[in-house]
Protein 1
Amino acid sequence: METSKLKRESEYKWVIEPVGKMRVPAIIYADKQLIEQMDEKVCEQASNVAALPGIVKACYVMPDAHWGYGFPIGGVAAFDPDADGVISAGGVGFDIACGVRTLTTGLKVDQIEQVKEQLLDLLARRVPAGVGSRGKIKLNPAEIDDMLAGGARWVVEQGWGSSEDLERIEGGGCASGARPECVSAEAKKRQRDQVGTLGSGNHYLEVQRICEIYDEKTAEVYGLRKGEVAISIHCGSRGLGHQIGTDFLKKMVAEAGRYGIKLAERELACAPIKSPTGQEYLGAMRSGINCALANREVITHLVREVFAELFPKVQLKLLYDVSHNTCKEEIHNVDGEKKRLFVHRKGATRSFGSGFSELPEQIRDAGQPVIIGGTMGTASYILAGTNESGQLAFGSSCHGAGRNMSRHQATRRWRGRDVVKSLAHRGILIRSPSMRGVAEEAPKAYKDVGAVVESAHQARLSRKVARLEPMVCVKG
């Protein structure tokens, strides 16, 4: 991206001033090198989002941003329902409530090293991965509706998880206001036997070594200790979420003119929050959120079964589960006034600071854990939300490394088997049903996650707590 198009307000803050149809500025948080690595479409898409009805303050762009459908991935935008604000299927994304949860184990790295291959084999057998992957749990139509209404709470009631997990999941494990009746029969059909599966693309189940602590006090509160092992699960709402996105994108495009909305590009399709279509999408999207929360809870249950076979006395404790493709109804301070807003985070993680009432008491003073997924060959990070982030970007931070080349470009440059072999030389074991998928997700196809995290830290969107490196990875 050409920096000449931007006004630089600080080392980590860049502004696109309102021009043309823009109602508010677009603000990008990143260092100069990351800005230069971003494709030009990021600037264009952020400007388009800034022109949507009812947008408040600014369209915010995170350090890991890249081109997406309609909204840039790494985009944050909040809309006021009382000012004709809109909700956008493209602003949430097709993988509704894709997110990451991290579990602590208390195990030392050498304990995992002794059983590493056996552990990976067991995890790969127990947790299905890949395009169209199917699990052993089959839900009938009534059970699917119950799952879409109840999320992780419902699957825990069925015996596929732990009630202790619920307070460590965003929203208590269930998005209220879900309306399964707004989810199409085709979407429900696609989800019938996909509960407890990873899916494809950049989704993963990873066993990680905690290799660096930046904030000892917060790390201790979170249960993170250098030299111990953590587990991260990254996945979303599978085929159901994709179908919800597809269904409502078509509907919003068809109805845009009725609401006087002119779309700069098709994928910006949206509807007024208070309109029938807006309310239906909210109900369906919240059902998709519950699907994703249920999915990650079931996978956690399967992972615990594997670890119980190898380490019978070990308890895997959930640190936190947070989504990064959502629209959430939240109260934010806007020019000294508290407003009810609908905050779209597409490839962006909620990052609320200390004292946030939704957090369990044990970690409330430390702030919300912000889980940043890396690549299978680099690192992931645990950050903490900051109180400043609320004013900087509606309490949001980055979500991962962010791609710097397309999947097609990656497959032309690398072969999956070579990537697996190269990582094995470094002691990182990979299992995937698709060598093409491994090539698409080659570590060098992504930005430097360390630089992304440093920008988020320096901009005060979130603060660094710990760095985690992969040991074994089940890849979608």
Note: The mean pLDDT is 95.
Protein 2
Amino acid sequence: MTLALHPATPAVPVSTHTPQEAGDTAYHRGAQPALRTWRALGTYVHLGVADATVADDAAALAAAVLDDVDAACSRFRPDSDLVRANQAGGQWVSVNPILVGAIRVALRAADSTDGLVDPTLGELMVAAGYDRTFAQLGGRADANALPTLVSRGWADVRIEGTQVQVPTGLALDLGATGKAFAADLVALTLVEQLDVAVVVSVGGDIRAHAPEGAEVTWPVDVAADLRAWSDNDPGVCRVSLTAGGLATSSVTARRWVRAGSTWHHVLDPRTGRPAQTPWLAVTAYGACAADANTATTAAIVLGESAPDWLAEHDVAARLLAADGSVHRTPTWPIQLEEPRT
């Protein structure tokens, strides 16, 4: 998803819409918003700040937070805390509190979806070829032997204070919830330290947050991927976000070929293979970005049964099918959805 704010440069894929003030509690009436964009965690970052006078400070602080997340949680850095914990299978490892928080979020996602969103698929991801950043993968991967799946292995991950124990034979991969966790952490940090309303997108996982008593509504463009956004695909629409999270999970972007078969990064923990799904993309609202992303990832894995599961869990979601049709859960705010112009 792409934030629809003033572009920082013509190359930034955003529109020229500005945040809309909401009610009598609008934040800093008359203040001009600003957008900053850069890359981190192997993806794009868009940061909207309600007051342009602090935009540079906000961007610097956000970048520092994301650097800390990368150092703690990346499975592509040999010096990361996550890699150390995975390599010490069965042993307690002292780690950065940021990794502890990210693992807690991932385990909560696993528990709330009964394992549909599983953070212990690290060995499978590596064997499937996703053993380096996607930019380095190059679209093809060697056909290594796939590991045996461990049912509910995530339930055996242990945390005590700032120590983590990953079960022997398993490896954590926080890719399913990591970007959303990072977006939540950035938004909470900026509001706490700078007292400014913000919205941040980390690879399409979005969190809006504001100081108490303030309220800003941000327009957001929903698309399966940046290509669909830039081509103004018919599946693209614009919605609004005032607080909480909005996330999109998609099977269209991160794809590669392994032994003649096409893989994508959303794996089904029940089969150990890419999720077989009729959905190109699923978008959902949540109390935070991590909750929204948990719902959208589970929906991709569930496939045809996703709409019923989302409705049962009272998730406001929009599902884009491969045939171009759109399905919405009963709580999706269709009155806020509008074509992108």
Note: The mean pLDDT is 84.
Protein 3
Amino acid sequence: MSASSRDGSPPADCGTCLRLATFRNDLRAREPDWFNAPVPSFGDRSAELLVVGLAPGMKGANRTGRPFTGDYAGDLLYATLARFGFADGRYDARPDDGLTLRRCIITNAVRCLPPQNKPTGAEIRACGRYLAATIAGLENLKVVMALGRIAHDATLTVLGERRAAWKFGHGAIHKIGPLWLIDSYHCSRYNTNTRRLTPQMFEAVFEEITRLLG
């Protein structure tokens, strides 16, 4: 069993989930210049806001080593973070672009790239220890933003809550102990292309986050 680091990140050669480790090793052989490892959280360790995504994208975070960096979802997420004062610098879809986050940190429910971007239930549960460690290590955390139902459910699980008691819905706000959990549809290309999520809808969630943080 792999242990987490002090900041809640899995080891680079985490072998807890055989399917994910095998897929990662195959990609290392095919794309040796890619990151191809569990992707660590990115942002401000004194964060009040934690953004939880699903998992690294193949040509996004799995390639670059930074959450939501290198794929379309990052374009919308980082632009919105900047608009609401959570990011400084210019997002240029690469980990050395100089972008920094303020009062915010980003992670994923599953840290390794899953085939077809679809982690299994067992993989989500296994990676929950790292999400739990991340949350526990953020002393100033007030709001968790869940991007999509899987992130929502994973967050509830590590907080020890029943999923049935807290239903996912875009813009839904839940008070769980000292934390607020706020939901959004995932900022994926599919969701934005189909207009399931518009930039205006995404910004409305951040307006609520800003209100909750005061």
Note: The chain is about 35% helix and 15% strand.
